């Protein structure tokens, strides 16, 4: 893989950088992955191969447990990077993540000085009281929920462009997506909470994410390209279930 890579262990998380002499930095936040504790070892990070292929510099935030980016030490580390001028040389900074990583990408938008956030199926708040629907999240994930970084929308500054991808038929993800009022919300119907895997499966993840990193994302082209989902057995099965649930 191209570029110079360094990974630093901060106790509860890793910060991993890959430099390729680019004027664009992509700050990647790992998703939850379904396990509370993560592999405590050097590893390739979410988005690393994607950014390396595109020739973009990247900073990867890699928590050792599924804490939804609530560790004070992480915030302090990113603030030190900001105050040291780490983000300043870049013409463009993009925050990127999926699910828990989408939450992190949104929540730390102001701190990294992001020009754009690209969030796939993000949760937008850890406060159930902010939601207008029942959520099992609090019972499943024992993490602290207080302060500015517990609601991702508090981390966005108005000039930041936001691109959110979600399944409009999967109400949980769609409701979170619609909370981000400044976002351009891209519909990916019939895939539930598997937008990245679906896009990768039809070979549309890499080209459209890279286009978004360069501020060249074209929604019309995206919708044309994802029509292939209609031939997917997963999509057809989900649509049958969705129709049956509605009694149609």
CATH classification class = Alpha Beta
How far is it from the N-terminal to the C-terminal residue, by CA? 50 Å
Please tally the helical runs, counting DSSP H or I stretches of 4 or more residues.
Answer: 10
Beta fraction: 15-25%
Order of helices and strands: EEEHEHEHHEHEHEHHHH
Report the CATH superfamily. Answer: Alpha/Beta hydrolase fold, catalytic domain
Low-confidence stretches: none
Number of strands: 8
Describe the overall structure.
With 248 residues, the chain is of the alpha/beta class. It is globular and about 55 Å long. The protein has ten helices and eight strands. The mean pLDDT is 87. The protein has a single domain (4-245), classed as Alpha/Beta hydrolase fold, catalytic domain (Rossmann fold). Strands 1-2-4-3-5-6-7-8 form an eight-stranded mixed sheet, with helices on both faces. It has helices at 48-54, 72-83, 100-107, 109-112, 137-140, 171-179, 195-201, 205-213, 219-225, 233-245; strands at 4-9, 13-19, 24-29, 57-63, 92-98, 116-120, 161-166, 183-187.
